[in-house]
């Protein structure tokens, strides 16, 4: 690991997540993550990340290698790639009518993503398998920090189904949304990100959320 930042109850690693697995050792974690989907995606969205690709997105090998090591996982994915091995079920995130590009000759929008669930760490009220009402901002100028950024409320919805003492681990941390959600749900968090640009953004976002939570007497 080239950098380690400890921010309240969150520990963030800059580096390859395959190394982080050895660093965190035997800590029992629930992996909640938005990994590379394995579709070699390149965004044509008019933002600072236009034309760039997500690291290790050429196939699902890095996703499968890392997440095979954990019994309990919630991982986002695409219909364009194989499902997560060992998944016991699949949720659908309905992104709302404003989202969905893809093939414009196809008369339906791809306005959804899968969330693969693995393991037995999940409990709580039995909600619908199609998750609605969680929308992320579209434009970088309005606060979007990553091309595949997820809503904090959506990640909180997932993390809330874990036990209170769970340690949430995101080996593909991106801009830190899972960490913000974990702190808001009073879970410890471990995150890893290989891209230094997004690592720095994650540190700032999590630090800001931690500070805001302290002002109100709880994590936020």
Per-chain topology:
Layout: E1 3-7, E2 10-14, H1 17-24, E3 29-33, H2 61-67, E4 73-77, E5 89-94, E6 112-118, E7 130-131, H3 152-159, E8 167-170, H4 177-184, E9 188-193, H5 196-215
Helix pairs in contact: 3-4, 4-5
Question: What do you see in this structure?
Answer:
The protein is an alpha/beta fold and 220 residues long. The protein has a domain at 36-162. The protein is built from five helices and nine strands, in the order ββαβαββββαβαβα. Strands 1-2-9-8-3-4-6-5-7 form a nine-stranded mixed beta sheet, covered by helices on one side. Strand 1 and strand 2 form a beta hairpin. Helix 3 (152-159) packs across helix 4 and helix 4 runs parallel beside helix 5. The model has no long low-confidence stretch (mean pLDDT 86).
Task: Note the main attributes of this structure.
single chain; nine-stranded mixed beta sheet; about 220 residues; alpha/beta; 5 helices
Integer-rounded radius of gyration: 16 Å
Q: Strand order of the main beta sheet, please?
A: 1-2-9-8-3-4-6-5-7
Please give the share of residues in helix: 10-25%
Q: Report strand %.
A: 15-25%
Distance between the termini: 27 Å
- Which segments are poorly predicted (pLDDT under 50) over 5 or more consecutive residues? none
The counted number of beta strands is: 9
Overall pLDDT: 86
The structural class is alpha/beta
Query: Can you write the helix and strand succession as a string?
Result: EEHEHEEEEHEHEH
What does the overall shape look like?
A: globular
């Amino acid at each position: 690991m080239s950098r380690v930042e400890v921010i309240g109850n969150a520990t963030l690693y800059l580096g390859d997540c395959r190394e982080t697995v050895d660093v965190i050792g035997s800590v029992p974690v629930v992996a909640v993550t938005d990994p590379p989907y394995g579709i070699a995606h390149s965004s044509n969205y008019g933002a600072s990340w236009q034309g760039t690709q997500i690291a290790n997105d050429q196939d699902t090998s890095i996703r499968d290698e890392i997440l095979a090591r954990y019994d309990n996982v919630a991982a986002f994915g695409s219909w364009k790639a194989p499902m997560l091995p060992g998944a016991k079920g699949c949720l659908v995130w309905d992104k709302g009518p404003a989202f969905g590009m893809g093939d414009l000759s196809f008369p339906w929008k791809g306005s959804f993503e899968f969330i693969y669930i693995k393991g037995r760490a999940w409990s709580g009220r039995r909600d619908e398998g199609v998750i609605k009402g969680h929308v992320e901002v579209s434009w970088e100028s309005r606060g979007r920090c990553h091309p595949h950024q997820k809503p904090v409320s959506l990640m909180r919805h997932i993390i809330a189904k874990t036990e209170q003492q769970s340690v949430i681990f995101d080996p593909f941390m991106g801009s830190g949304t899972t960490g913000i959600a974990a702190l808001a749900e009073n879970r410890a968090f471990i995150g890893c990100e290989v891209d230094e640009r997004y690592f720095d953004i994650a540190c700032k976002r999590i630090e800001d959320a931690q500070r805001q939570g302290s002002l109100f007497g709880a994590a936020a």
